[in-house]
Write a structure and sequence with these properties.
The complex is a heterotrimer of chains A (240), B (283) and C (326). Chain A is of the alpha/beta class and 240 residues long. Chain A is built from nine helices and ten strands. In chain A, the strands form two sheets. Chain A has a six-stranded mixed sheet with strand order 6-7-8-3-9-10, with helices on both faces. In chain A, a hairpin with a 2-residue loop joins strand 1 (7-16) and strand 2 (19-29). In chain A, helix 3 (98-108) packs across helix 4 and helix 3 (98-108) runs parallel beside helix 5. With 283 residues, chain B is an all-alpha fold. In chain B, a hairpin with a 2-residue loop joins strand 1 (126-129) and strand 2 (132-135). Chain C is mostly helical and 326 residues long. A two-stranded antiparallel ribbon of chain C has the order 1-4. Chain C has a two-stranded antiparallel sheet with strand order 2-3. Chain C has a two-stranded antiparallel ribbon with strand order 5-6. The chains are: A alpha/beta (240), B mainly alpha (283), C mainly alpha (326). Chain B binds chain C through residues 33, 83, 88-90, 92-94, 96-101, 103-105, 107-108, 216, 220, 223-224, 227, 256-257, 260-261, 264-265, 267-268, 271-272, 275, 278, and chain C through 50, 52, 99-100, 102-107, 109-111, 113-115, 117-118, 121-122, 124-125, 238-239, 242, 245-246, 249, 278-279, 281-282, 284-289, 292-293, 296.
């Protein structure tokens, strides 16, 4: 038995509209680990992220970060502890200039040099040319990247990304994957990646967790999961 | 004294429930907070006034709501449907503009003075109630309130359209995908909601005097009823209208200083503790 | 450059009464500027929080009542009474704001309507203290803040005073909304959920804007009470809130001068369309509908691009030039 992991979710249960949307999911992520979370549509991936980030309170279970129980903390308190997320449906400040909102997020995350931080993130995500643009006027792919930028500022320690590649071009997805890898390797950021693009998930994840109908189905290295007959049946089989 | 208070409370409660159920239905299906609803009540009363002069009260009671049904369906087609994807606050502001237009329209056609509808002969006598002579007409208004609520309930429960209305108010998208023409259902519901406002207006005509500003108080009271009852819920509106009628009737006698404010305090309390009550979507 | 523009507008306001010959027009303009300030109060809540209030008459009207009571019953001087009133409004509205600004959209409108009507009806019931339906006459002293009170009663004098106050309020608000506080409130209005996820406290900034908007509306109410020497419960009625909202919507809130323009247009429509037809309210209603549907940024949103076409666009981030960061 190895040491207690940096970011854990223990036996999480979420009831939602009379339905048990999440039923006993457990995860343990080490610092700097990239974990893929996959499952067929309706498996409860977004609900899971919502419950972990405080958007929805779980019915039962525990979420810990760096040994601290954060299950019932407010969204803001979680963010202060370094938990950050992106959204499946792009969630940005449409009426604000790009740089202003990233700066605000960076400042709010108590970055030491919020302005440099904001500019650096825009540069990394290839948005610096649009710094002055009203976010609502950006193209779809750029808005997706801005959503991500808002999650990345202030050096979060845990990133929960809800389908960040959706709507990006192949090159954009590759670049993003590279970027996530660098974050994990160089800055020891823990990444939970919910993504439809299997190639990318298996390509960059250290481990992959599969859930189905809110229940855990399998967990292991990408190769183990790929070879798991249950997974092939429930998910990969139908996708192929 | 006690009996009379309850009775008077029921009379106003009946008017209110007819008017407010229309407001609740329109909210339930269209998600529109209709500030013009009081003006529609007033318009119904004025149309009823004219019909009662050229024909008689009974024709007015039937034809004025029918005219309002048509006006309501036009309102849905011309305003609510084109604006259905807009922010609810914008639509609210548009109905606020409509309120000003309707009020002036009535001023232009019927003048600024107070008018009144004559009590029909059949109901002009009084009956002995709780030892007091009570106008028969007021008794009839309670009957009308009960009758229209029963009719509305039966329509929603047992008719095919009523089923669609209930389905569409719960989940418009799925209902539309099931092949129900939700646009037609919406138009009908806004029409009926408007007709109910008109019906309340005509019924109020012989008791309260007609003035272009008569819609204001009813509008605000209907908001209170609908919010306390849970916006969009007809059963809730029924209970809270009766409650509000009693509070006003008793309050004016026993607690004049508190009674006027009490409904609003209840409304405030409900909005603060249960703002999601506004999202209640049962019709 | 910015200050120069304010000076120009200040000068224009001071000179305007000299060129306006007609007393009716002057009195119209004076009323318009007082209501402009009121509309500005309603407007900043919409602009910074996206909240539509149907109850701001409660602040507009009660400010006059509170000043009157402080002077009559507690024998405060006019200046002290005014400052105390504004302070009291700020505190009360802030506490109220902590509760009500959590309530979203339509429910917020209904809630403010209910609060406004509660204040209106309570005032109507209070015959001994507040004069009930008759309202109160206010005995203003000979001078207020060192200015001869006759200056406040005279339309031209009051116009200049209200104009200066309104300009000062716009200037201060403009400065305030260019700070991080402005960014934070715009972010919350724009996308409350995302704001929470970047770690912003939602309630506090909203309550502060609510308080600010109440103080601005209250200031307008005090000007109105000085000008007329009288305060009536009708100023608390929800239709007065609705009127201020109309001015705000017609003028638009993207620019702070929008509600001011809206109020001036409102009074001009009332006066001049009112001369042509009795049905100016219907016209106004139609204008409101057209603006909400076709020009959501109001008249100011329509004309601002025409005014600003030639200007160089300088974008700033939280008060600093963008280039400064690189």
């Amino acid at each position: 038995m190895k040491q207690k992991a940096y970011f854990t979710v223990e036996d999480l249960v979420v009831d939602y509209g009379g339905v048990r949307a999440i039923d006993g999911i457990r995860l343990a992520l080490d610092k700097g680990e990239i974990r893929g979370l996959i499952g067929p549509n309706g498996a409860g991936k977004s609900t899971f992220i919502d419950a972990v980030t405080g958007r929805r309170l779980p019915t039962a279970g525990r979420v810990t970060l760096g040994g601290e129980d954060i299950t019932r903390l407010s969204i803001i308190a979680r963010r202060d502890r370094g938990l950050s997320r992106s959204f499946q449906r792009t969630s940005i400040f449409a009426d604000m200039p790009v740089l202003e909102q990233v700066f605000l997020a960076s400042h709010q995350a108590r970055a030491e040099h919020p302005e440099e931080d904001a500019l650096a993130i825009l540069k990394e995500l290839d948005l610096e040319a649009y710094a002055d643009w009203r976010a609502g006027d950006l193209g779809y792919g750029q808005q997706r990247r801005l959503d991500l930028a808002l999650a990345l500022v202030g050096s979060p320690s845990v990133l929960l990304l809800d389908e960040p590649m959706a709507g990006l071009t192949v090159t954009e997805s590759r670049d993003l994957a590279e970027h996530l890898k660098r974050l994990a390797r160089e800055r020891r950021v823990t990444v939970l990646l919910v993504e439809h693009d299997m190639e990318i998930v298996f390509g960059i994840s250290d481990r992959v967790t599969v859930i189905e109908l809110g229940k855990p189905l399998a967990e292991g290295t990408p190769d183990e999961v790929r070879a798991n007959p249950k997974v092939r049946e429930a998910y990969l089989g139908s996708a192929a | 004294m006690l009996g009379i208070s309850i009775f008077n409370g029921l009379v106003y409660g009946s008017l209110l429930v007819i008017c407010a159920s229309g407001l609740a239905m329109i909210y339930g299906l269209r998600r529109v907070v209709n500030f013009a609803h009081g003006a529609l009540y007033m318009l119904g009363a004025y149309i009823g006034y004219t019909l009662s002069i050229y024909l008689n009260f009974w024709f007015a009671l039937v034809l004025a709501p029918l005219a309002m049904l048509v006006i309501g369906m036009l309102l849905d087609k011309a305003v609510f449907r084109p604006l259905q994807d807009r922010d609810p606050l914008s639509v609210l502001l548009v109905t606020f503009g409509l309120l000003l237009v309707f009020e002036d329209l009535v001023r232009a056609v019927w003048g600024r003075g107070n008018l009144s509808i004559d009590v029909p002969e059949l109901l002009s006598s009084s009956v002995e109630l709780f030892g007091n002579p009570t106008p028969l007409y007021r008794l009839a208004v309670i009957g009308l309130g009960v009758g229209s609520m029963v009719a509305l309930w039966a329509w929603l429960r047992f008719s095919r359209t009523g089923l669609y209305v209930r389905a569409a108010s719960t989940d418009p998208l799925t209902t539309a995908m099931m092949g129900v023409n939700t646009e037609r259902v919406n138009a009908l519901v806004v029409g009926i909601g408007t007709a109910l406002a008109g019906l309340a207006g005509v019924a109020a005509g012989p008791m309260l005097s007609l003035a272009p500003s008569m819609g204001g108080d009813v509008l605000v009271d209907s908001f209170v009823v609908v919010v306390i009852g849970g916006l969009g819920s007809l059963g809730g509106a029924l209970v809270s209208a009766i409650l509000l009628g009693q509070v006003q009737s008793f309050g004016t006698i026993y607690l004049p200083s508190l009674s006027a404010v009490l409904p609003f305090l209840m409304m405030i309390a409900i909005l603060i503790w249960r703002p999601s009550g506004l999202a209640g979507n049962r019709v | 450059m910015l200050h120069f523009k304010y000076l120009l507008w200040l000068l224009a306001g001071i000179l305007l009464p000299q060129i306006v010959g007609s007393a009716t027009l002057m009195s119209l303009l004076t009323q318009a500027v007082i209501y402009a300030l009121f509309a500005l109060g309603v407007g900043i809540l919409l602009r910074q929080c996206g909240l539509v209030s149907f109850g701001h008459a409660a602040f507009f009207g009660s400010a006059g009542y509170i000043v009157a009571l402080l002077m009559r019953d507690l024998e405060f001087g006019a200046g002290t009474a005014i400052l105390l009133t504004l302070f009291a409004l700020a505190v009360v509205a802030f506490l109220l704001g902590l509760v009500v600004s959590r309530i979203p959209g339509i429910a917020f409108g209904m809630l403010t309507l209910a609060i406004g009507q509660t204040v209106y009806l309570s005032t109507l019931q209070s015959r001994e203290l507040l004069g009930g339906a008759d309202g109160l006459n206010i005995a203003w002293p000979g001078s207020i803040f060192g200015l001869d009170v006759r200056l406040f009663y005279d339309p031209a004098g009051m116009f200049v005073i209200s104009w200066v106050v309104t300009l000062a309020v716009i200037y201060l608000l403009d400065r305030l909304f260019r700070t991080r506080f402005g960014s934070i409130t715009s972010a919350i209005r724009d996308n409350e959920e995302r704001a929470r996820f970047i770690g912003l406290n939602i309630t506090l900034p909203k309550a502060l804007v609510y308080s600010l908007s109440a103080v601005v509306s209250g200031l307008a109410g005090i000007l109105s009470a000085i000008y007329t020497g009288f305060i009536s419960p009708e100023t608390l009625h929800w239709s007065v809130s609705g009127m201020a909202l109309i001015m705000t919507i017609v003028g638009g809130v993207r620019h702070l001068w929008g509600p001011v323009l809206g109020a001036i247009l409102f009074f001009f429509v009332k006066e001049y369309v009112g001369e042509l037809t009795d049905y100016w309210m219907a016209m106004l209603g139609a204008v409101v509908i057209l603006i909400v549907v076709f020009a959501p940024n109001g008249v100011s949103g329509l004309i601002a691009p025409l005014l600003e076409r030639k200007k160089r666009v300088t974008k700033t981030v939280v008060g600093k030039q963008v280039e400064a960061g690189s």
